[in-house]
């Protein structure tokens, strides 16, 4: 082990810590080393430099963010592991449907938080965790992110977000009509538009028969 590595580790252990208050009603306070935050996140690097302005208490406040998602990010900063049930989940046939939906929603909230704090590596790690949840070799079926999770993603990300493109492709490749039959779900209009555009583009590419030649399909 080189001296540079030893110095880096010692600095992280003895470095000053900062308190980050996340949420409003279900508020949680996290204590994280300043150097760890600054090295990973441009957002926190800027926030740390501003926290001692006159009238402040030296803390960083994130009232609009989810404490569970933020806590998972802070844990990842030290462990480089995504806080999920398992690295390889148990067969989804043994997991309650609501639990799987809730876990996908948490992963999406984590991705949104990663975008906010400008940490692409964390976003990529969360995206990989989402795909791993779906690719379960022991399961008899594959679970996809629910429409609630997609709505959360679209509300918290920009138009060019890679995770948006992934969701659109997943639904275009493998989606079922039954997925859209639940009336208690509020869909993202942007997602529905993106999905329609993807499907229409695919149909244009695959179109090989003139509409007149298919008239029998619509004849009485």
UniProtKB/TrEMBL annotation:
PROSITE patterns: BTB. Transmembrane segments: none annotated. It comes from the Eukaryota. InterPro entries: BTB/POZ_dom, SKP1/BTB/POZ_sf. Residues 14-86 form the BTB domain. It holds the Pfam family BTB. This is BTB domain-containing protein. It comes from Zasmidium cellare ATCC 36951. The lineage of its organism: Eukaryota, Fungi, Dikarya, Ascomycota, Pezizomycotina.
């Amino acid at each position: 082990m080189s001296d540079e590595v030893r110095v880096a580790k010692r600095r992280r252990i003895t470095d000053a810590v900062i308190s980050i208050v996340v949420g409003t009603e279900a508020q949680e306070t996290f204590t994280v080393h300043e150097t760890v935050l600054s090295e990973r996140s441009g957002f926190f690097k800027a926030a740390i430099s501003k926290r001692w302005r006159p009238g402040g208490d030296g803390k960083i406040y994130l009232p609009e963010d989810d404490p569970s998602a933020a806590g998972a990010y802070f844990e990842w900063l030290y462990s480089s592991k995504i806080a999920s049930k398992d690295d390889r989940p148990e067969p989804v046939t043994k997991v309650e449907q609501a639990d799987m939906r809730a876990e996908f929603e948490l992963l999406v909230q984590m991705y949104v938080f990663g975008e906010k704090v400008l940490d692409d590596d964390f976003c990529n790690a969360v995206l990989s965790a989402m795909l791993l949840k779906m690719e379960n070799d022991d399961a008899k079926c594959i679970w996809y992110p629910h429409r609630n999770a997609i709505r959360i993603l679209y509300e918290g990300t920009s138009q060019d977000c890679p995770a948006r493109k992934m969701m659109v492709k997943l639904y275009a490749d493998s989606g079922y009509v039954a997925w859209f039959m639940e009336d208690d779900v509020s869909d993202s209009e942007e997602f529905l538009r993106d999905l329609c555009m993807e499907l229409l583009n695919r149909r244009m590419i695959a179109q090989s028969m003139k509409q007149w030649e298919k008239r029998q399909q619509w004849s009485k």
